[in-house]
Design brief:
By secondary structure, the chain is an alpha+beta fold. The chain has ten helices and 15 strands.
Length: 373
């Protein structure tokens, strides 16, 4: 996957939130303020200030005039991935985002999958908007028209393994066989068709769990009797998050969810428990040090967050169950580098490392001008 893009740099935390209603409240507070108070709430940076305009993000409707002069209508929030397994909402207004990576927005659609290198390979259908490492889109153009793969790779693999190989097959193989190396993630390619098919089968299961029902798929489920349920509803605001390993119960204040296997509770990314990080992100606005727009958030725990928690527990439990199989997976004999070079797969051409030209739609530039792509 030669084309890779650095992650979005938001520049200000208030433009993203776990609840879209919170973003509307923050937008209203900002647009109702004037002068120095609006400047303070905005949190200017060297890249973005209220007195600067910016182009509309591809596929989004937002004002492009200077924010100080004409904020425009509230932009409909879009679903993004803010941290590993933490899906939130973002205001898609480039005037508010330090580095929004328009090239990623151009290829964001119902066919797209983004592969993240941070840490541990992670696939998502949502635009990554956080410190998640390099982002590799599966497709270089909208509609899945061109794969972000080294030219000649699909034909080589299809000929080797006796069948049609799709870009999603390669993505699944990467999820199963990719391992961190001295120069980033390394993807050995199997020479044996049986090992190739075994890797695809494992990778498809990993991808299904990681996508979490996106792109029209069925949300993954645990076997009957192991599915987590709400045993006690959360009232008010939960004082903390805890887990009892013996009863497999996850507690949120006076609320309770079970069964939650210890493997899901202890699932970590970079030494941080995912469930604890997810809960902390939803309590950030209640921090006494949270000021300005970041301090705006729900007064009571939204019921929808408990539903999201159940889905997250399911995802982590399933990934934890697959982890030993993935760890033990080996690709067997590898395709020799000489064969990849002879097929033109290695090294990939320079153009494959750059975004493709997408000229089938117009984009509004700063101040209402048409953007030149």
């Amino acid at each position: 996957m030669p084309w890779a893009v650095d992650g979005l740099r938001l520049g200000r935390d208030w433009v993203a939130a776990p609840d879209p209603a919170v973003l509307r409240a923050r937008w209203t507070a900002l647009t109702d303020a004037e002068g120095a108070e609006r400047e303070r709430l905005f949190r200017p940076s060297r890249t973005r200030t209220p007195s600067a305009g910016a182009a509309a993000l591809p596929g989004q409707r937002s004002a492009t005039a200077r924010f100080a002069d004409a904020p425009g209508a509230f932009p409909d929030p879009v679903r993004v991935l803010r941290a590993p397994f933490d899906e939130q909402w973002l205001l898609p207004d480039q005037r508010l985002i330090d580095s929004a990576r328009p090239e990623l927005w151009r290829v964001r659609d119902a066919q797209q999958v983004f592969l993240l290198e941070a840490p541990g390979l992670l696939a998502t259908a949502h635009l990554p908007a956080g410190r998640l490492g390099r982002i590799r889109p599966l497709h270089r153009r909208p509609g899945g028209a061109e794969p972000n793969l080294a030219p000649g790779l699909l034909a080589l693999l299809g000929g080797r393994h006796g069948g049609w190989v799709t870009p999603e097959d390669v993505l699944c193989w990467i999820l199963a066989a990719g391992r961190p190396g001295p120069r980033g993630y390394e993807v050995p390619l199997a020479a044996d068709p049986e090992r190739w098919r075994a890797g695809l089968e494992l990778g498809h299961r990993l991808l299904t769990v990681q996508l979490r029902g996106a792109r029209g798929g069925e949300p993954p489920r645990l076997p009957g009797g192991r599915r987590p349920y709400v045993r006690a509803a959360v009232t008010g605001w939960p004082a903390g998050l805890g887990h009892d390993a013996e009863s497999e119960t996850l507690t949120l204040g006076d609320g309770a969810v079970s069964p939650v296997p210890v493997e899901a509770w202890e699932y970590e990314v970079q030494g941080v428990r995912v469930l604890e990080a997810w809960f902390a992100a939803r309590c950030a606005h209640r921090d006494p040090q949270a000021g300005g727009l970041e301090g705006l958030g729900p007064a009571e725990w939204p019921r929808s967050w408990t539903s999201e928690l159940l889905a997250l527990v399911t995802t982590l439990a399933l990934l934890a169950a697959l982890a030993p199989e993935r760890e033990a997976f080996t690709p067997g004999p590898l395709l020799p580098a000489a064969e990849l070079e002879a097929a033109g797969v290695l090294p990939p051409p320079r153009w494959a490392r750059r975004p493709a030209s997408v000229l089938d739609h117009q984009e509004e530039g700063p101040g209402g001008q048409f953007a030149l792509l």
